[in-house]
Amino acid sequence: MASLSALYLQALIIMSCLVFGLASYSPLSPAYYDRVCPQALPTIKSIVEDAVRQERRMGASLLRLHFHDCFVNGCDASILLDPTPTIDSEKNAIPNANSARGFEVIDRIKAQVDKVCGRPIVSCADILAVAARDSVFALGGPYWPVQLGRRDSTTASRSAANNDIPSPFMDLPALIRNFKKQGLNVKDLVALSGGHTIGFAQCRVFRNRIYNETNNIDAYFASKLQATCPRNGGDSNLAPLDPSPAVFDTKYFSNLLTKKGLLHSDQALFNGGQTDKLVRTYSTNSFAFSKDFANSMIKMGNIKPLTGKKGQIRLNCRKVNY
Ligand code: HEM
Ligand SMILES: *[C@@H]1O[C@H](CO)[C@@H](O)[C@H](O)[C@H]1NC(C)=O
């Protein structure tokens, strides 16, 4: 009896360590706007739902914006700044140019949130984080408490965007190194790559794979894609990243098992390396994928946030305040 309650106490201590450990791990908090503007989060959610209802792909585009923000000097909305004589916009970086989308939805959210809150207190960086979560949820994915309280940058870096956003031509060791640089581990890499269960990619990023990579690609899959993506031209023609690009499911992973990953970097996660095992797990266990994806999204959202007196709360997500 005594040992049983001791065990119970031990479990309680471990659990509270987890809870408080998590809280102290980040200077951010999910309750950040609860008192100052309780309508902020519901407002973001309803605009995201609207946008996704109009175009399912928008959910994917908004998820990707948060990722591309966080990997470049932290989650500080630097990706949203338009070019000016002093801003070398990340929108012009190779991974974003003619590719990153959803900026108008973020503008709409920002205007409406500032209106319902009566003043500009919600940062553009937090809007990106919440919009990513609400997008995933709207497409049938997991829901997680988004950590909040990030502030917005006053600078952007096109060169950092070029250096730090992973390339679709990377092999597994390069992808692992790229994520490690952000404080993310191999499990985070595999779970977050599952973001490719939604959305599309352009011919130019998978052309080499479907014509040249005969070893680790399903031949029929490659030949079908060649119809959408000719050897010459059609650079911006789209193909879905998995067979159900508007549903957050595990098909991204099950496709890797049959060598039907669209990007070289997707198939790199299942090509005889250390991540094969986790890809297999996620391919049949949507609960494990959802849980790990949510955890890794929180971790990604915690990359180098600006807090306290650092940065600012932008009035317009595209511009630095004067
Ligand atoms: C692991 C390294 C990654 C690489 C190399 C990579 C690369 C790419 C590329 C090349 C595209 C297609 C862009 C285009 O053709 O316009 C894309 C799309 C996308 N990526 Fe990734 N990505 C990675 C990780 C992630 C992560 C971590 C997330 C989110 C958690 C994510 C979410 C998305 C989404 C949702 C799309 C579709 C966007 C749309 O349809 O507008 N990716 N990615
Ligand atoms: C296939 O690889 C060769 C040699 O690297 C390259 O020159 C060619 O452009 C590639 N083909 C496609 C369609 O990407």
TrEMBL record:
SUPFAM superfamilies: Heme-dependent peroxidases. Residues 27-321 form the Plant heme peroxidase family profile domain. Ca(2+) 1 binds at D69, V72, G74, D76, S78, E90. Substrate binds at P166. The keyword Heme applies. Residues 1-23 form the signal peptide. InterPro entries: Haem_peroxidase, Haem_peroxidase_sf, Peroxidase_pln, Peroxidases_AS, Peroxidases_heam-ligand_BS, Secretory_peroxidase. Heme b binds at H196. PANTHER family: PEROXIDASE, PEROXIDASE 72-RELATED. This is Peroxidase. It comes from Cinchona calisaya.
